[in-house]
Write a structure and sequence with these properties.
about 45% strand, mainly beta, Immunoglobulin-like, 5 helices, globular, Beta-galactosidase, Chain A, domain 5, disordered N terminus, about 10% helix, single chain
Length: about 400
């Protein structure tokens, strides 16, 4: 007890060392504002972890909030053992601003509501999930993205990775609800070259689980020496050429607790002499679905009877799929035989977009195309203004 009291006094007032006064750490203020007319029960916020924050942390200030504490975590995003970002969830009423500060007290880790896992046997590649949905990317020449639906809030990837547990039959973990086919999948990516989509298939690649909860999960995908070309490419020999354009890609997939959407950040690095390509994202093009598109808002989606059922039964129920992009990066909108897509011009080699799904059996699912469009608009608007002082 006496030690805790002494630590609090020293942290708040500073200490005298060797005749010199050492001041207490400066107090960081994180100001978060909701500029919309909607209430946000959990707004995701990520800010850089600073040396001032580190000093406060070391001084025992490990509670963050105002008159109410907020859940947060500290993340190492590059695997070097150093903290890079502070990730937090903030409740904000419409138009509200909250000023958050670190105060004295021990850190209390939030309940685990996000996770990431690699399982080739369980779900064919890296996957990331919140407590309401899950996404995966096929770790093969297809490189398409898929979505799992959940009937109740929970984490499911570890269950699906268990030998003998199927993901194409509905169980306590949920269900694989999307037929990807030959599309890029939900929020998948490729390049737009010579008037068509090129999947990231002719490439060396690796993955890193950067953050495995509890409030967000982050998976990093690295693609090295990618030469766009025919699909499927199983041999590399037919199209590999030193003279052809080559690219390296660094892809970061992030998902937050309580959210149906994930976010992709893609950095494109052309090899010497290779032009910067337009990139593409989108969703599968299925029959009996309604197209949702607002180019001004950067919204693209489809809603309708496109959900899989048990044993991959087609058209088992309604499913909304969509992406939200920066309209300023959109170079064009279109469709081919397999995809509904938007072309994006990288800005300084970088694109960022969100992808989203709503399955008819999940709590609070969209019940119409209009309701699903409203969901996508809310995802586009969920961008709090943040200042750090």
């Amino acid at each position: 007890m006496q030690q805790r009291m002494l630590k609090g006094i020293l942290a708040g007032l500073g200490v005298m060392l060797c005749g010199a006064w050492v001041p207490a750490p400066a107090q960081t203020v994180i100001r978060v504002h909701n500029p919309t007319g909607e209430d946000w029960s959990e707004a995701p916020v990520a800010v850089p972890w600073t040396s001032e924050m580190e000093a406060e942390w070391d001084a025992g200030r490990q509670v963050l909030g105002d008159d109410r504490p907020v859940d947060f975590q500290r993340d190492d995003l590059d695997g070097d053992g150093e903290i890079d970002e502070l990730a937090l969830l903030v409740a904000l009423r419409a138009g509200q601003t909250r000023e958050l500060r670190f105060t004295e007290g021990p850190y209390r880790q939030p309940a685990r509501r996000a996770a990431a896992l690699m399982s080739l046997k369980g779900f064919d590649g890296p996957a990331w999930e919140s407590d309401v949905t899950a996404y995966r990317i096929y770790w093969n020449a297809d490189n398409a993205m898929d979505i799992f639906g959940k009937t109740r809030p929970r984490l499911s990837l570890a269950g699906w990775a268990t030998p003998g547990v199927p993901h194409n039959i509905e169980n306590e973990y949920g269900l694989d609800v999307l037929k990807v086919g030959r599309s890029i999948g939900i929020g998948g990516f490729g390049a737009w070259i010579d008037g068509r989509i090129h999947k990231v298939s002719n490439v060396m690649k690796t993955h890193h689980i950067r953050v495995d909860g509890p409030l967000r999960a982050v998976v990093e995908l690295e693609y090295v020496h990618w030469q766009p070309g025919p699909f499927p490419d199983l041999s590399r020999e037919a199209i590999t050429s030193r003279d052809a354009p080559h690219y390296d890609l660094q892809v970061r997939m992030t998902i937050w607790a309580g959210q149906r959407w994930g976010e992709a950040e893609i950095i494109v690095r052309p090899h010497k002499g290779s032009p910067m390509p337009e990139m593409v994202t989108g969703l599968p093009r299925h029959d009996e679905t309604v197209l949702i598109k607002d180019e001004t808002a950067g919204i693209l989606g489809r809603w309708g009877r496109q959900a899989l059922g048990d044993n991959d039964a087609p058209k088992a129920g309604d499913l909304g799929l969509g992406v939200v992009v920066d309209p300023g990066q959109a170079a064009g909108w279109g469709e081919d035989d397999f995809n509904t897509f938007v072309r994006l011009r990288p800005r300084d080699g970088r694109i960022v977009y969100r992808y989203h799904g709503s399955w008819f059996k999940e709590p609070g699912a969209a019940g119409s195309a209009e309701a699903y469009e409203a969901m996508l608009r809310s995802v586009a608007a969920l961008r709090p203004d943040v200042e750090v002082e």
